[in-house]
């Protein structure tokens, strides 16, 4: 047993990887899934895969629990989420370290991911007293109109490996205070963090006498993933993943008139103007491109630099990249851990070769690191123009540097990709910054000035446009996707006037 699992009070892992209304479900016939440490290639532990029968049992129980949970007053639902946030505070370091062990992001980022979970719980607690509708004036005398929001139903959450717990919490905390129950299918690459999170949830819900609020199904795409998409018991599917898979998810769920919340690909750019504070810019670029080994949907993949300063920026980046320590993500000195799988390493190598064949020149990096684990060198490639390869999103620490002539040209390059998640500009010119943020500027869901593309706060709605899917999670009014809107009209008069002045009878 790994000591991190012991710290999290997980006595055994392979006793069951599905959690339903009555507890962990054991299946002696279930296949086992290995959780692999990407730093060593070694197996950390095993979990059971969910069977078809187990899946149906969990969803039935989740749907049944919704009938009770939806009637609990929202502030009391918030009280449970407050306690979940406190439980996460108590487990901040061990859960964050487990994220680093299983996913490969450095310890500071792993702990930061759990802090995101805590922050969204705090946000949701306040939200539980502010699920507000609107009151409007009726055109008919003696009538009152208003709208209110009701719980939507059980929610299916399908999360990705790169943020194995934070993205679940964005959905779960808001869905819970909105009155929904939920079932979670985590990435098969990071099952242990899901099991650990479920254990924490179990202790909190038991203290509140609640069951069936948070459920877990670890399984393959056919047995669990596909069934979640087609399951009419789940009116909302929240999916985080690639644009290619997201297109299929949207089609299948729409086919049964379900709703989707899609957080898909990003091909994010930073624009560097000649008047930029380069000390700030270099720090923002390096973290955006190298953080999480380039495996964030908000990672910086394209760097658009004015032709007058591109040489200076590249030289400063080369010096910064030379200082990036690569290795064990749990070591305090490490700034970049491994890629998630050996296949990711192979893909990165092929992408670099393709970019060079399209006219790119290697500035630094480009090699794999021999030995255990999926380690690579962070790579910078200078491109004369934006090519087909650059337009494709690659989940790896590859940064393409492209020159531009003026701000209009830079915005045109930035927007000419299928994805529209995050974008940034570094400039000290107010007029340039405002142009970038205007309707004719960045077409992304997130647009920043003098900070990088990564590191969104939970207070703002997170998501993007175009092939990023259009979904919004976390802050602002993203809670509305987890609820159904109802318009109400009350006639308190003794007459029955019709709208639009219609006379009938």
From TrEMBL:
The active site is at 263. Keywords: NAD, Oxidoreductase. It is an enzyme of class 1 (oxidoreductase). InterPro entries: Ald_DH/histidinol_DH, Ald_DH_C, Ald_DH_CS_GLU, Ald_DH_N, Aldehyde_DH_dom, ALDH7A1-like. Homotetramer. Belongs to the aldehyde dehydrogenase family. This is aldehyde dehydrogenase (NAD(+)).
